[in-house]
């Protein structure tokens, strides 16, 4: 994932490189342009001096050749190589052309050429500046001039680098520092106070902080309501559970007394006993649920009492309790992969609540096909079929049971996974 700080550093580094290249290019262009401008001005000056002499005397002086500067009064006076490499007839007045040429003796020269008008006589002269390449390479120019140029260029580069570093520091301080302050507050909000508007500087960052703070407050309020609901529900259920439990115990004693004292119908007595047993079993499960909800609602990390629990026995018990959900359905139950010897150290109430929700959901939402349950060492998996239209239903359609499973697994550090494909749902618990 990209980092804003790294991206800014990369972009600034690229900007620095481009700026240096731009500076070097401008220096190169400036030097070449300066040389060309100075040379053209020199040639125009020589032509102006010649025109002034003609105005004073009325006579054009003969062609001159100083070795470097040559003024020809006529094209025919030029060497052949100058006639060949320059189109004098097409050249504009005071236009300077330059190029490398090879003279008639095979020497390489760099030539500046210009056609200058002598208006008093109505004709042109041809000014040529030439530099012999081999001779120029042999000449040793004054090192002070070169050193001065290097010092000037180095000073310019250093000045640019200092400016860039100062600009980068200011940019970092003004842009990245507020972002880092905001990030530090987001990641350490419990220890760090919310940054002031002046610290963040920018309204966009302040809006983000305000939004995050609002969301956190809403989340805290939601968690408080959830905890209050769980505590209230659990406490409110305790009283009716206790009343039902005591009533069932009383019914058991009454049934036992009547069975001894009267010749009551055996079938009626057995039916009452089974009904009483089912009520007792349901109430006991409800009591376990309430205890687990109370444990979940506590903020401390107090753990429930644990013991060695046989996974197979708990799973079989839950299967039998929920088998009625498969009545009148074309569903096969595959339980051959249940390891009867699989055991873990855990709380029996927690395991039963986990298995109860997963198995009940699988039985309830399966209409045809096969439900496969696997119990192995520290592993429980249940795979159930779903119809194509139901497979697209939202996860919430499976009810609060799976939410409770997630909460319990987070609390006891079990790993819960649920995968849905086109025609099956797979739920797994790893202890």
Automatic annotation (TrEMBL):
One of its GO terms (biological process) is osmosensory signaling via phosphorelay pathway. It comes from Photobacterium jeanii. The keyword Membrane applies. InterPro entries: BphY/WalK/GraS-like (IPR050351), HATPase_C_sf (IPR036890), His_kinase_dom (IPR005467), HisK_dim/P_dom (IPR003661), HisK_dim/P_sf (IPR036097). The chain crosses the membrane at residues 12-33, 150-173. Its EC number is 2.7.13.3. Keywords: Kinase, Membrane, Transferase, Transmembrane, Transmembrane helix. Pfam families: HisKA. It catalyses: ATP + protein L-histidine = ADP + protein N-phospho-L-histidine. Residues 232-431 form the Histidine kinase domain. Coiled coil: none annotated. It is an enzyme of class 2 (transferase). This is histidine kinase. PROSITE patterns: HIS_KIN (PS50109). GO terms for molecular function: phosphorelay response regulator activity; phosphorelay sensor kinase activity; protein kinase activator activity. The keyword Ribosomal protein does not apply.
